[in-house]
Amino acid sequence: MSTVSKASIIIPTHKRPDLLHNLLESLSKQKTAHRFEVIVINDGSDADLGMLEVEFSDISTGIIYLDQNRGRAFARNEGVRHSSGNILIFVDDDMTVVGDFVERHVSACTGPTDVVIGNVLSPPEYKSHPLARYVERQGIHKLKSRQKIPPRCVRTGNVSLSRELFDKAGQFDESIWKYGEDIDLGMKLCHAGANFVFAAGAVSYHHHPPDLDDMITKMKEYGRYTVPLLVAHHPELKKAIKLHFAEPLRLARENPVMSLQKMGLRIILTPPFYRVALFVYRFKRLGRLLFPLIDYIRAYNYIRAYWQVQKEAGG
Fold this sequence. Notes:
eight-stranded mixed sheet, alpha/beta, 2 domains, globular
């Protein structure tokens, strides 16, 4: 990167002014020699955020108002279009960040192909909740030591990259308006020659109450609205998100082991098995079985939602 760097922090928001205030307050306490601006995109809510723009003018906070809810992908792209930094930092409005967050990102983004993945953690008030512990151990935290970071680990709640690379990759796909637009961006960045790095010290705390029903709703939306687009654009993702097991059986043309795995999946992805899993989850004291159980609950909902879309389309 250039020796003179300016970061643009892009924050989409929708009807969460109190959480947004907390994030801006944490950004106002940054200790860094690098210049930065904050671009907030009010995504179709009627909230007047003008007072925040005044209160946090010391960190060059600007508010963009969208007249309707366009989704996070569109909002982030719109924020980039109004920004001036050569480094883009994306963060979600329900987070707060550590005092050297900007410094950590800018220092780690040393080349034009670097994509810096920050460290999303649960705040103290949620640390004991099983879903918070589960989320905190997903993505990049599941990788083994020295394992190459795959593009699906990109999470745009805490990530930075050069404007040059973002434009080269084609920005966010605005047709993805539900959960999962960051996976598509990660794949496009990979194809554009990205070098994924993990900045463990670039910490953000996710102040979203862990809730099983909320997670299930997001997985259904992901399976119905996002997965069909992801596999259409990036067929290689089918294996990563287990959809290759959900394809029709081809007994005469595929490995017998694969056929058995597919049959097994069809059995466990039935409502009776799922109801048992939900019942067992309520106990929460399952030791090492807890996280695989949550994996199953997530997969059940997005795979079955995807199946339903395929069925409706005659696939």
